[in-house]
């Protein structure tokens, strides 16, 4: 991993880290306006806050800024208390993704991160390698029903991550991606962590996913989802248990 020395400027300190062989070690990779001016942005991903998809060389990338959620976001949109670089949300997500990707698990590969410290607060950005040809589980269900085997494979994929101890802080239907070749990926590991595998938090992850699907089904009656789908997912999760 290439790491820039901290840079000072206008009362702030910039920390940047780049995975070798991917992106140039330049600040413009974190700036949507500059990416746009270079003609690199391919689209903006929908969500509570936009992520920017762009191309450089032969690869696609996803730029995501860290935004606050909940009530506090009304007052402080994207600043966090500084307690050290290695405790920032960007660094922790970076390290988690590097570990899981190195183990061959279906998560995005981290490419670059930036943390800007100003006094007691910081802001951050993370760039990951795009997973080409994927759609969110929600997008898929809006178009068609998934076969029971596909649901079981989703459950088995989540179980692979769980067996490694990968706890997802917000496992929902928009954070699961499917590709046309049968691949399944889990994204957005902000606030995720490695834990000792235990049934309690594994089931809590699945319960959260089920609630997100049920809520979407209430909002979109035409969504190709019902309780049988989640039953198949849970069956796949259980069947993939190690030992």
Count of distinct strands: 14
- Residue share in β-strands: 25-35%
For the record, the count of structural domains works out to 2
Q: Report how far apart the termini are.
A: 35 Å
Helix content: 25-40%
Low-confidence stretches: none
Number of helices: 6
User: pLDDT average, as an integer?
Assistant: 92
- If you compute it from the alpha carbons, what radius of gyration comes out, rounded to the nearest whole angstrom? 19 Å
What does the overall shape look like?
globular
User: What about the largest sheet?
Assistant: 9 strands, antiparallel
Structural class: alpha+beta
> Helices and strands, in N-to-C order?
EEEHEEEEHEEEHHEEEEHH
Which keywords apply here?
Transferase(Phosphotransferase), domain 1, 243 residues, 3-stranded antiparallel β-sheet, 26% strand
Short description:
This protein has two domains: 2-129; 134-239, Transferase(Phosphotransferase), domain 1 (Orthogonal Bundle), CATH 1.10.510. The chain is built from six helices and 14 strands. Strands 1, 2, 3, 4, 5, 6, 7, 8 and 9 form a nine-stranded antiparallel β-sheet that branches.
Draw up the topology in text.
Layout: E1 2-3, E2 7-9, E3 12-18, H1 32-37, E4 41-45, E5 51-56, E6 59-65, E7 80-81, H2 89-102, E8 110-118, E9 121-129, E10 134-136, H3 137-143, H4 148-163, E11 166-167, E12 176-179, E13 184-186, E14 193-194, H5 199-219, H6 227-239
Antiparallel strand pairs: 1-3, 2-3, 3-8, 4-5, 5-6, 6-9, 7-9, 8-9, 10-12, 11-14, 12-13
Helix pairs in contact: 4-6
């Amino acid at each position: 991993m290439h790491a820039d020395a901290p840079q000072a400027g206008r009362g702030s300190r910039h920390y940047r880290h780049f995975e070798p062989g991917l992106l140039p070690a330049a600040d413009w990779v974190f700036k949507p306006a500059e990416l746009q001016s270079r003609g690199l942005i391919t689209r903006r991903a929908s969500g509570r806050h936009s992520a920017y998809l762009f191309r450089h060389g032969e690869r696609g990338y996803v730029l995501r800024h860290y935004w606050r959620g909940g009530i506090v976001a009304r007052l402080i949109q994207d600043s966090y208390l500084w307690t050290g670089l290695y405790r920032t949300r960007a660094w922790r997500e970076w390290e988690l993704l590097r570990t899981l990707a190195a183990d061959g698990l279906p998560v995005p590969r981290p490419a670059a991160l930036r943390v800007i410290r100003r006094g007691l607060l910081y802001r951050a950005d993370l760039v990951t390698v795009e997973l080409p040809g994927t759609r969110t589980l929600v997008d898929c269900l809006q178009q068609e029903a998934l076969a029971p085997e596909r649901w079981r494979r989703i459950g088995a994929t989540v179980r692979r991550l769980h067996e490694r101890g990968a706890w997802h802080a917000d496992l929902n239907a928009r954070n699961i991606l499917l590709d046309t070749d049968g691949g399944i990926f889990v994204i957005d590991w902000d606030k995720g962590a490695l834990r000792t595998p235990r049934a309690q938090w594994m089931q809590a992850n699945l319960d959260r996913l089920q609630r997100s699907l049920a809520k979407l089904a209430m909002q979109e009656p035409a969504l190709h989802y019902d309780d049988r789908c989640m039953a198949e997912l849970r069956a796949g999760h259980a069947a993939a248990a190690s030992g």
